[in-house]
Write a structure and sequence with these properties.
Blueprint (H helix, E strand, L loop, with lengths): L1 E3 L3 E7 L9 E8 L5 E6 L2 E2 L5 E8 L6 E12 L4 E17 L5 E2 L3 E11 L7 E6 L6 E5 L8 E8 L7 E11 L2 E12 L3 E6 L10 E11 L7 E6 L6 E5 L8 E8 L7 E11 L2 E11 L4 E6 L6 E3 L3 E11 L6 E8 L7 E5 L2 E2 L4 E8 L7 E11 L2 E12 L5 E6 L6 E2 L4 E11 L6 E8 L7 E5 L2 E2 L4 E8 L13 H25 L4 H23 L23 E11 L2 E11 L1
Parallel strand pairs: 1-8, 9-15, 24-31, 33-40
Antiparallel strand pairs: 2-6, 3-5, 3-7, 4-6, 7-8, 8-10, 10-13, 11-14, 12-13, 14-15, 16-17, 17-20, 18-21, 19-20, 21-22, 23-25, 25-29, 26-28, 26-30, 27-29, 30-31, 32-34, 34-38, 35-37, 35-39, 36-38, 39-40
Helix pairs in contact: 1-2
Length: 588
């Protein structure tokens, strides 16, 4: 049988029974097994008709390679007969060996050779791995892997990164063939990468428009000798810039002067500036605290424009204000420009043209003409004092000038409801607009139109020069009363009843002569005669034809202005310009 150290192998044991032996036969390996090897049988006892058993030979990883003669003993029971047989056991194995690699610099790689050596005819493939010991950031690879045929050499490459720590590590390489594995170790020495450090001295405080310096120092480490380039990578405030002299710092060691320049626009305050030093793949940074202190200056602003939109031919104003800061006391000269530039576009000027002592105001006037193009313009106002300059802006929209016109309105009437025969008034007001200066003629009309409806008139009948008032008077007609009596057949019946009434009165008076005193009877007759006369007069004055002295049915009366609601439309006319307004009045 052939086995590999650390593995197992099998063989078949055959039993031949003689003379009808029926005993159970027990099998065992009685001699010849190499160190750390063992054997077992399946089944271990042959009974009845069972004549074969499988021999399993197990070799430990420590079992030495070589050939052995193993004795197998068969013992019968109960007869106690013993027989032996032998077989050859060949134990195969392999070994690993590694050559120590050269010292490696963090961030680079180094090779090593792994040799597989067979023992006692071993010919299996061996897979190789780095099973332990690799430092942080390091990795390994094998070429080839596996090593085929049980013999050969593979190149192990160990790669590191810049983050791999400096020091010595023991790396374990494991070779595996089936269930058999062996290891070998070697030491890996990682050296520090040549490097450098960068530092900066503090910079003095500065003011906007000034500069300050700092010294940048490059210090080499681990034999570093490369050039180092310098830059300001972050933190510069608005309007500031930096420069180095020299740059790069050559040979990996030395100093450079950093100059930080500010401008008038650089804000006051503290900033942290980052300086980056670069050499190939190596980069290091340091920081500098920059303190920009306020210098003499002035603030500058424009107030809200008097009218954001104006008509062509008019103007607008804005108050320009300057305030001194940090002891500023110089005069500020004012200038302005208008954008976009247009033919006959807006113009601008100041009063006064400069602000003295750094504090005060000036009135900016933006002028247009009737020919100024419509549209939006931006006026930029600049305040200059020596090297200090500040600007502010206002925006103006120019629209076409409207045509001359007038507004026209009617006040509430003096009485919302009037009686027929009375009048009502309202104040008509005209207001000139956009230079309007023409007289306005006033007219009126009443709706609905009715017989004896309201009439209207003005005092005065025109409003001069487009501005002023006029009193509108609305007049009505009072009704005239007349006596109304029956007409037609009713009138004839009324007249015919008169004699009958007189007879009744006379009869009554005659009858009374016998009973009453003569004086009383005379009074009664006089009253009866007067009553009959009045009836006759009324009947005669209301004949159906209205002829004679009696007149018509209304006997000459008028109804007056009809009751109802009327709308008086007032029209103001000045050439081709016409406006109207209305007044409502109710007649009762």
């Amino acid at each position: 049988a052939t086995v590999v150290a650390g593995a197992s192998g099998t063989s078949t044991v055959t039993l031949t029974r003689l003379y009808n032996l029926g005993d159970d036969v027990t099998l065992a390996c009685s001699a010849g097994l190499p160190a750390a090897a063992n054997c077992s049988f399946s089944p271990a006892t042959l009974t009845g008709s069972t004549l074969m058993s499988t021999l399993n030979v197990n070799a430990d990883t420590s079992t030495p390679a070589g050939n052995s003669t193993v004795t197998v003993t068969a013992t019968s029971s109960p007869s106690g007969k013993v027989h032996t047989t032998t077989f050859n056991l060949a134990v195969q194995d392999f070994s690993l060996a590694a050559t120590a690699p050269a010292t490696v610099v963090a961030g680079s790689s180094t090779p090593s050779s792994i040799t597989v050596t067979p023992a006692n005819g071993f010919s299996g493939d061996v897979n190789l791995t780095c099973s332990s010991g690799l430092p942080t950031g390091a990795s390994c690879s094998f070429t080839p892997s596996p090593v085929t045929g049980g013999s050969g050499t593979s190149t192990l490459t160990i790669s590191t990164t810049s983050g791999t720590p400096v020091g010595i590590s023991t790396i374990t390489v494991t070779g595996t063939s089936g269930s058999v594995s062996h290891t070998t170790t070697f030491s890996l020495t990682v050296q520090a990468v040549p490097d450098f450090a960068v530092s900066a001295s503090s910079a003095a405080a500065t003011t906007p428009g000034s500069s300050t310096t700092s010294t940048i120092t490059i210090t080499p480490a681990n034999g570093f000798t490369s050039d180092v380039a310098l830059s300001c990578s972050a933190g510069l405030p608005t309007g500031a810039s930096c420069s180095f002299a020299p740059t790069p710092v050559t040979g990996g060691s030395g100093t450079s002067t950093l100059m930080i320049n500010t401008s008038a626009s650089t804000p006051v305050g503290n900033s942290t500036i980052t300086v980056t030093a670069t050499s190939g793949a190596l980069t290091h940074t340091t920081t500098i605290a920059l303190n920009v202190q306020a210098g003499p200056d002035f603030s500058f602003s424009a107030g809200t424009i008097s009218a954001a939109t104006i008509n062509a031919g008019t103007s607008a104003t804005s108050t320009i204000t300057a305030s001194a800061q940090n002891g500023f006391a110089a005069d500020i000269v004012l200038t302005c420009s208008v954008a976009p530039v247009k033919t006959l576009g807006p113009t601008c000027n100041f009063n006064p043209a400069k602000i003295t002592g750094g504090n005060g105001t000036s009135t900016l006037t933006i002028n247009t003409t009737s020919a100024t193009p419509v549209g939006s313009s931006t006026v930029t106002i600049t305040g200059t004092s020596g090297a200090l300059t500040h600007t502010t802006t206002v925006t103006l929209n120019v629209q076409a000038a409207p045509a001359p016109d007038f507004s026209f309105s009617a006040g509430a009437p003096s009485a919302a409801t009037i009686n027929a025969g009375t009048s009502d008034t309202s104040t008509i007001t005209a207001t000139a607009q956009n230079g309007f200066a023409t007289d306005i003629a006033l007219t009126c009309s009443v709706a609905p139109v009715k017989t004896l409806g309201p009439t209207c008139n003005f005092n005065p009948a025109k409003i001069t020069a487009g501005n002023g008032t006029s009193t509108l008077t609305i007049s009505t007609t009072a009704p005239v009363a007349s006596l109304h009596t029956p007409e037609g057949h009713a009138a004839w019946l009324y007249a015919m009843s008169l004699p009958f009434g007189e007879v009744l009165l006379f009869g009554a008076g005659f009858s009374e002569q016998k009973k009453l005193h003569k004086k009383k009877m005379m009074r009664f007759l006089f009253a009866a005669a007067l009553f009959c006369g009045l009836l006759m007069l009324a009947a005669c004055g209301n004949s159906p034809t209205g002829s004679g002295g009696s007149g018509g049915g209304n006997n000459g009366g008028t109804p007056g202005t009809p009751a109802g609601q009327y709308t008086v439309t007032v029209t103001g006319t000045a050439g081709s310009t016409v406006h109207t307004t209305t007044v409502n009045v109710t007649v009762q």
